[in-house]
Amino acid sequence: MSTENSKFKDFNFAEGELLLINKPYQWTSFDVVGKIRNSLKPLKLKVGHAGTLDPLATGLLIICTGKLTKQIDTFQAEEKEYTGTMILGATTPSFDLETEVDTTFDISQITEAQIYAATNQFTGDIEQYPPAHSAVKVNGERLYVKARLGEEVELRKRFVTVPAFEITRIALPEIDFRIVCSKGTYIRSLISDFGKALNNGAYLSKLVRTRSGNFLLSNAFEVLELVNYIRSKKEEAKNQAQV
After folding, report:
1. What is the rounded distance in angstroms from the CA atom of residue 68 to the CA atom of residue 90?
2. Whole domain around residue 130: which residue ranges?
3. What's 46's domain CATH number?
4. DSSP characters over 55-106
5. 185 and 134, same structural domain?
6. Is the link from the previous residue into 93 a cis peptide, with omega within 30 of 0?
7. Which of the ends of the chain has fewer CB neighbours closer than 10 A, N or C?
8. Cβ contacts of residue 203 below 8 Å, gap of 6+?
9. 101 and 201 in a common domain
10. Which residues have CB under 8 Å from 218's CB, separation 6+?
11. What is the pLDDT of residues 127-144, one digit of tens each?
């Protein structure tokens, strides 16, 4: 890879870098952190992410290295924006594609006007429960661990803010949307509740985080693109040292 690519710069990972990454589909957020941390070896640096994305979601993941990891909580607290697709007329236990459809509903009588109107119930300050299949910890254990074992889990209500919930396409059973929300909002829960508001069911089939605070997905690196660049710079430095 050419180091003259203007997209890249001379990083100082130890001092601290904020990296914008487009998280791949089916990767966990920790997978991304691990891939970048391994590419930096033999440097032993702190590497962390500011805001988990579910494995089936893609989009903007903020990665911090070195001294900048101390600011992760600040970045994580910022407003987020997502685009995605829901499937109306069915539900899944996980509220997304992780689990199989368990219930189906008739959607033949649902109108576009009803769909647009239903978004009004989910803007402003709202309350929601996290999905049973989520990374939230209860008594020190992740909810999804209990859910996958078939154990009952106690879900605790949380309050979140949704400044914008916009329907961008209706092609039933698919509905595309754009959501702007506060830290801690579960889009899967919001979509599940949206289906209930129509006396029906809905689950999330696609989710992309497009913004976090003032940081945009359009400015993000692909994981392997960045990792290959880091490795090329290390190899370049090694060769120069041997001259």
Report:
1. 43
2. 80-212
3. 3.30.2350.10
4. TT-EEEEEEEEGGGGGGHHHHHTS-EEEEEEEEETEE-TTSSTTS---EE--
5. yes
6. no
7. C
8. 86, 87, 90, 91, 92, 94, 95, 96, 97, 101, 188, 191, 192, 195
9. yes
10. none
11. 998 886 555 544 555 455
Amino acid identity, position 10 = D
Task: Say if residue 122 is in the same domain as residue 47.
Answer: no
* CA separation for the pair 168, 206 (Å, rounded): 14
Q: Which of the 8 DSSP states describes residue 150? A: T
DSSP three-state, residue 199: coil
**Which residues participate in catalysis according to the annotation?**
54
In a domain, 2, yes or no: no
Q: Which of 38-47, 50-59, 88-97, 234-243 has the lowest mean pLDDT?
A: 234-243
DSSP 99-141: S---EE---TT--HHHHHHHGGGGSEEEEE---SSSS-EETTE
**25 and 124 belong to one structural domain:** no
pTM for the full predicted model: 0.86
User: pLDDT tens digit string along 82-111?
Assistant: 999 999 999 999 999 999 999 999 999 999
Gap between the Cα atoms of 157 and 96, Å rounded? 20
Among residues 113, 13, 98, the alpha carbon closest in space to that of 64 is found at: 13
Do 66 and 104 meet the contact criterion of CB atoms below 8 Å apart?
no
- The β-bridge partners of 5 are none
**Tokens describing residue 213:** 């605070």
Rg of the chain over Cα atoms, rounded to whole angstroms, equals 20
